[in-house]
Design goal:
mainly alpha, single chain, about 260 residues, about 80% helix
């Protein structure tokens, strides 16, 4: 009987010690985890502190070159900031400044790509109105004379209109509106140039359609007033051309008979 009680007591003590051991393991694990976390945090702070002078130096160098107009050097310094310190406020600024550097170098297509990338990754950044304005300005800088292709003109208008629609109170509003008016005048001049060319080669119906297009789509332009002076003459010749085509006395623009 005594042996049985001794055995029972032994097992109870053993069970108690085992439970204490398990609890101790948990405590050790927590302590170890805490130490590791503190070490990582301390190491991270130390690393960050060591990197701060380099970041500050790169930023000073970049801003100094940018202010002096050394845009290629500035671009490289901003690029290094972006690549070495991703996620930092300075890296975000650097990405915007990279686009600005290309803009002031006159490399407008590259600048557009960088501005669009910035807008894509930081859509809520306070600089977005400026970014959209700059995209429009890049296209504005690349606009061509009225007798050439007007693709860039249309893209500039589109960017400026997007700015006015999304940020109607931006500080760039007045300039954007002024440029839209100027660019619409350019598009109207292009249409008038084409109309006069058609008229010159005696494609009167095509010329008349272009005149109507100017009057209907650019009524607020000076070119529209000039188009209105020509509309009656162009209309009369378009009617005469239609009659001749129907009679078979004239072929169409491509040299074919009127269907």
């Amino acid at each position: 009987m005594k042996f049985f009680n001794f055995k029972k007591t032994f097992y109870l003590i053993l069970l108690f010690l085992f439970s204490v051991f398990l609890n101790s393991c948990g405590t050790v694990s927590k302590i170890t985890s805490g130490i590791g976390s503190q070490f990582s945090e301390a190491f991270g702070k130390k690393k960050k502190k060591e990197e701060e002078p380099l970041l500050a130096e790169l930023l000073r160098e970049a801003e100094k070159n940018f202010a002096k107009g050394n845009y290629e050097r500035a671009y490289e310094a901003y690029k290094e900031i972006r690549d070495k310190f991703p996620g930092s406020p300075q890296a975000v600024l650097a990405e915007l400044r990279m686009a600005d550097s290309k803009f002031w170098q006159g490399e407008y297509l590259q600048a557009i790509a960088l501005y669009e990338e910035f807008e894509k990754f930081y859509p809520n950044n306070e600089a977005i109105p400026y970014v959209i304005y700059q995209i429009g300005t890049c296209y504005y800088k690349m606009k061509r004379p009225y007798d050439r292709d007007q693709s860039y003109t249309k893209k500039a208008i589109s960017a400026y209109q997007r700015l006015l629609q999304n940020f109607p109170k931006s500080p760039y509003k007045a300039e954007a509106e002024k440029r839209i008016k100027e660019l619409r005048e350019l598009l109207a001049q292009h249409e008038l140039y084409v109309a006069k060319f058609y008229y010159k080669i005696k494609y009167y119906r095509g010329a008349y359609q272009r005149i109507l297009y100017i009057i209907n789509n650019y009524p607020d332009t000076y070119t529209s007033k000039e188009a209105q002076k020509l509309v009656l003459t162009y209309y009369q010749n378009a009617l005469l051309e239609t009659k001749k085509l129907a009679e078979g006395t004239k072929k169409d623009f491509w040299g074919d008979k009127y269907p």
